[in-house]
Each structure stands twice: as structure tokens, then as C-alpha cells.
Amino acid sequence: HSEAVRYFCSKDVPALFLGGGGYTLRNVPRCWATETGYVLGLSLNPNIPEESEYVGYYGPDSTLHVRTSNMENRNEDSYVQHVIERISQTLKDHVRPVGAQISANYFLDDSVMDKSDQIRALLADEEEEKAMDSSGDAEDADGAGRFEEISNRNRG
């Protein structure tokens, strides 16, 4: 786990580290303390303070180091490579670079699409009203007032 953190930090790119699963209660805080220290460039004391109210959770010893187990690594190299390739392809397919232009095939989520549909409907209604009443308000002739109403409605 720490090797993965070190790898991404070495690439000098923005990163967000999220937890996974499979750790024991006494190893989770050790793991995250060690990795947070590494990300921040801090060298942490390897001994957990005895005065900590949680020191009992770290038994049998009170050190920050997570002891490696003697569990056999049964992950086959081909499987690990397959996972890396899938993650890489997913990132290529779905992650857009910051500041990149959004292409025509970029899909918006449902909430944005719903709001867009509402705006289109209001603009269409506005056009109908203008056709019926040629004396429409010049300030709101383009439907801007209704657009603001929809786009600001959920800002609370």
C-alpha cells in the first residue's frame, strides 16, 4: 500500500488517496498515519505515544510500523497486469484533463440534462408567448430572466 502512495507521489501530479478495505482495526490507523506523514514529507516517530487513549488498540506492540505477514501472495502477475490495464483504459476513457475543451460526445449527468431540458422548455414557451403577443418585454425577449430562474432555483 505504501509503495503505491510513494509511486504516485514520485510522479509529481495531483493525487487523492482514498481508503480501501481488508485491514485490521489496529493496522488502519498505522497505515494512514504513515502514509499521511509520507505525503506531507514528515518523518514520524515510530513509537505510538503511550499517553494516547487509543494505545490499547495497537497491541501487541505500540509501534507505527505495520508488520508484514507471512501470508502467501497469490495474485498472479497476469492478473495484476490485467487490473492495471483496465484501470489505465478507464482513466483514458473517462478522465478529462483540467482545462480541456469538452467534446461533443461528452455525456452530462441526469441532473444537468434535466435542467437543460427545463431551460429549453421555458425558452420554447417564451417563443410561443412572443408569437402570440408581439409586444413582449424587450428586456426578457431572449428568455434570460427565465434562464436565471431555473439555473438559480436549486442554489438555496
UniProtKB/TrEMBL annotation:
Keywords, comma-separated and alphabetical: Hydrolase
For this protein, the Enzyme Commission number is: 3.5.1.98
Here the segments flagged for biased composition (Basic and acidic residues) are 143-156
Comp. bias (Acidic residues)? 126-142
Q: A GO molecular function for this record? A: histone deacetylase activity, hydrolytic mechanism
Q: Which enzyme class?
A: hydrolase
Annotated region described as Disordered, given as residue ranges? 126-156
User: Does this entry carry the keyword Hydrolase?
Assistant: yes
> What InterPro entries does the database record attribute to this sequence?
His_deacetylse_dom_sf, Ureohydrolase_dom_sf
The reply on keyword Transmembrane helix is no
Would you tell me the protein name for this molecule?
Histone deacetylase HDAC2
Source organism of this protein record? Toxoplasma gondii GAB2-2007-GAL-DOM2
The top of its lineage is:
Eukaryota, Sar, Alveolata, Apicomplexa, Conoidasida
